[in-house]
Design a protein that fits this description.
Length: 93
């Protein structure tokens, strides 16, 4: 769960699978992945809608920054030729 007021943001959480309640977001330490970036320059083609719609499109590599946002699905660019300019290897594999 998630709730936001004019003063704070609250997060609903569980411990050991059991409901623990709601607490101010400021009490939590973010657990974000670390990304190692590499510059690239190569062509590629995005898969068809069936394949690309299973993958999110983000402003930053997913779960690497609190201000990263999901902006759509890969199907937005289905069957298009693209230029890959950077890769990110995440600490979680």
């Amino acid at each position: 769960g998630y709730a936001k007021t004019s003063r704070t943001e609250l997060l609903h959480f569980t411990v050991g699978g059991k409901d623990a309640g709601w607490m101010d977001k400021r009490a939590f330490t973010a657990t974000l992945d670390k990304a190692t970036y590499s510059k690239m320059s190569r062509g590629a083609k995005i898969g068809d809608v069936a394949a690309s719609s299973k993958h999110g499109l983000y402003t930053k590599p997913n779960n690497t920054a609190e201000d990263g946002e999901k902006i759509g699905l890969g199907s937005l660019y289905a069957n298009q030729n693209v230029q890959i300019i950077q890769s990110a290897k995440l600490s979680t594999g």
